[in-house]
Amino acid sequence: MDKPLEINLHDILRERLPRKVSRFVPGFMITFLEKVIHQDDLNEMLRVAFPLRGSAFSRKILEHLDIKVEVKGLDNLPEGRRYMFASNHPLGGLDGIALIAILGEKYGDDGVRFLVNDMLMNVEPLKDVFLPINKFGSQGRDAAKAINAALESDMQILQFPAGLVSRLHDDGSISDLTWQKAFVAKAMETDRDIVPVRFEGFNTKRFYKTAYWRKKINLKVNIEQVLLPGEVCRARGNHYRIIFGKPISVRELKARNLPPLALAAQLRREVYQLK
Fold this sequence. Notes:
Order of helices and strands: HHHHHEEHEEHEEEHEHHEHH
Structural class: alpha/beta
Mean pLDDT: 93
Number of helices: 12
Helix content: 40-55%
CATH class: Alpha Beta
């Protein structure tokens, strides 16, 4: 890549939408969406961090946004072991960037793989550390093979078991949705210790309220997702804290005598108890 990645929503929509649909999308609406996602600010970040990649790119983004990250518990991780890092997902952007920066520095970019939604493969500077989860067709089969190969390797694996960003709940709390069981099953299958990770941080109230009321009115489209790029920009100057818990071995997981889904729920609770 000989020039910085640049986000151009007009071009993206022209490429992604059928022509008979895109020609009816008014320009002022696209311009409005560009402001919502903070397109100019995002492109400035990409220019500042160019041509860095992986964890170096992530560290440069944090530096550019004047974001401080306090890290606790890295001394809980003995060398020479294979881990599945399972973290809560409070931010939808900067949490992943910060974790890549930290784990990439510790293990090297060649030693870390992050399981992500396949759409994030468009973030070119992080493509080397991402492994896409694609559930459909031949691409899905290829993605599954790549993930299985990584799990069998000595690389450290990181993922957000909730998949989606944390949400506001009816009781007023903000936390992850249900954790899926796949990370537990795969860790046990490939003899990986699970490392619970707590990322302390929040998006703006606007994001949580949009997601909350969208669900209340039973709107199926996750319209709040369009706010996430802007949340990255709004986080300038913030301070976050990441806590790495002690690794949990497969032997210990089996001793709990619970099915994978129940283990995932239990590990989710343990993450929020980390101090």
